[in-house]
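Action item from last week, closing it out:
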Amino acid sequence: MRIPAFSLKASVIAQLGFLILAAMLLCDVVMVRFAERDLVRARVQAGRLLAWSLEGLLPDLIEEEDESGDKSRAEAMAAVRDLLEEAGYASAFIVDRRGEVVVDMGEGPKGLGIPPLATALKVLRAGQEQVELLGRTWAVIWPGPEWVRISVPTSGRGRTRAGISVTGSLEPLYHDLRTSQKFVLLYILLDTAILALAGMALLARVVVRPIRRLLKMTEDYTEGDFLVTLGESSGSEIRQLSRSLNHMIRRLEENKAAMREHITSLEQANEELRKAQNEVFRSEKLASVGRLAAGVAHEIGNPIGIILGYLELMGRTDLSESERADCIGRVEAEIARIHRIIRTLLDFSRASEEKREQVSMHGLIKDTLEMLQPQAIMEDVRTVFELQAERDVVFADPGRMQQVFLNILMNAGDVLAEGPTPGKGEKVRTIWIRTRSKKGRIEVSITDNGFGIAAEDLSQVFDPFFTTKDPGKGTGLGLSVSHRIVEDLGGSIRILSTPGEGTTVIIELPLEGAEGITT
């Protein structure tokens, strides 16, 4: 069966195999260490036995051959050679009690430790055994001593007769250990694989299979279902997990139901809020329309008077056809003027749902000013345009943006109308309308040179129903509604004012198609 590289089973096999392998290798390291120590000890003991065996040959090596037929010195030397070979030692060195060298056989380490002659003399004088580990070489896993030298004193007839020093290499010992270690490592790898597979089979039965069944249940879960609790055989933790999942699903279903009810109530509240907001916008628009109606009535009165005059002229019988046609043309022009004024007011006052489209701010401002021209508040007011924005198209509802500009301009007109009529040498009532481009946005500023806003009132100008006008001249909703309309478009509106000098309203709106602006 193929196991995915990042599955739970593959992860468990890898980690379990690593842990088993690491544990076995650590055990092997400890065993190798103890084996090295025990083998070196055995090597030392073998050296002692060799030295004791050489002690038995001392009479033939030191004393002259007698008549009893003892072995000759040559035979004793051959026996020493045989003993060295059997014991696996490389050299033997014997000095008598006078310090004379009796035996110097084999090749030992060169330049390591105290020379064998000095060692033999030392133990001869001290009467104590000495064990030396000489040199360093690579053992099995780490470096170890390369040579071992055992020096012992021998005694006979109650006094020390000679000093014996034997030296053997430890390299054969290490070689045997390294050879056996290869087989040990092979067995470790094989045992690791067997134990990992066996552990995986057990783990799969106890953990992996129940988890897979639980995963399958969760994948097949549909709204309203509950997971089947796994049996006791699948382990208490897994069974508890399935029970916890069932509890969680039940809570989720309850939360879903509560959330649906909450969403429904929010949707209803939003719908009511939207209707209330539209009513506020509509009320403010109607209030503006009511104020505009007086000026429109005055503006309509002039063309009606003109029309009546021309009609009276047309009633005369002494008019030529060309004069009569001219009167008819003038009457039509005045009627068209009345129609345009009424149509502008009707279009503005018409209730409609918000519909955003591409709108030119420059054109909208000029249309709004044209609507305000008949109003008494704009009489003797000079309008200065400084439209410097290279791009002026925004994505907005034209009616609502016109309502914003109308509110601001009517406020400016009201402030200027409350001041005295400028005489000779006095400042002219003026409204400046400026636009400029500003990093993907258009900034529109409308400034008047009226008496400004008091500092304590400036922080409240956007609050609903806040107004400094006399009763009947304002609802206090104009700037509040304008603030909401501008913010809904992703823009901002702020007011700067200095008492006695004038007020500036600054509107910033994102341009249509600017980077980061979506429509």
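Closing note: The longest strand covers residues 159-169.
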